[in-house]
Design brief:
By secondary structure, this protein is an alpha/beta fold. It has helices at 2-22, 43-62, 82-94, 107-120, 153-167, 182-197, 216-225, 236-248, 266-270, 288-300, 309-327, 332-340; strands at residues 25-36, 69-77, 100-102, 124-126, 146-148, 172-178, 201-208, 229-231, 254-257, 277-281, 345-347, 350-354, 361-362, 366-370, 375-380.
Amino acid sequence: MKKRFVLLLAALCLLLTFGSALALDSDNPVLLGYVGALSGDTALWGQAGLNGMLLTAKQINEAGGILGREVKVIGLDGKGVSDDSVAAYKKLVEEYGVCAVVGTNFSSCNIPIASVADELKVPVIATAASNELVTVDADGNLHPYSFRLCFIDSYMGYLAGSYAYTELGLRKAALITDITDSYSTSVGHYMVETFTGLGGELVASEEAQNGDNDFRAQLTKISAAQPDVLFVPWNYENVALIAQQSREVGIECILFGADGWDTTELIELSNGALEGSYYVSRPGFNLPEAAAYFDVYAVEYPNASKETECLYGNDGVQWIKTAIEAAGTDDPAAIRDQLEATESFDGLLGHMSIDPANHNPSRDAAIFRVDAEEVSYVGIYEP
């Protein structure tokens, strides 16, 4: 009887030891922040990014957390506006005490956040904010606490201009940009620079701004120039309107865009006006790991649309996790150092490495074709 008691006691001790090893430290969690447009016209992107972070944090916690500690994600609404996004970042750092922030997907928001991050010394990882000034200032000086997961404007513009000229054989281009948006003007500049550098001709260039509902005056001038391709580096809600009005004024050429087109709502909103057009973006759910992740995501969020921002949310959390584990601490400065030293990271958006001089990732981009009822993945494009 005594022997049996000793065995039971040993088993109980083993169980308690094993259980304590698996138990998460929820009193001292790893706090991560997210800033995105959780309301407004592009809330489907912001909510997808937050959902991706929450789902991945849940999976990490089920597997033992980060350094044995529970991961908690706090999401705040930046509304896709610079002032609100800066305020949200500051609140996450100063009031909630997060060790790192993921977001936003707007260059116009992350550019002002970068300077604040330098002051508060807590890293911010932009998702789809592609303007060069997200991570460096106008003189090329590095913002030490600002990073990104996406490729930059110059690369997207280069791919779009190159594909239009080399692969599609187009020779005359027109451009319409949003003069209030750094993303639009930057990508548009590099689209034209690449296209004309290869031998193409810019036959028309027009400007408008977000909030305009009638682009017909600009598009009529473009129509008169008879381009082979119209570059439209805008976000999807404006793209749909520009596309429909371009067809109304007689523009029949291919329209070409960038990752601002990348949403499941594009087909419905454009009402067939984008048929035969193209855009450059990340591979998205066309990679096997990303497709498998969405199967789980769809169960967790059954009413959510298939937005790539959720993959950015996952990759942001996983990249921070990798940095914390390498540093052995969630100290923001130590996380910053590990993010900057990243030579190889594999996420749902593919493989990437970071250039320590500018914090820009080297990664693959893909071409997509828009038809009347679907968007088709053409494939990874390497000119």
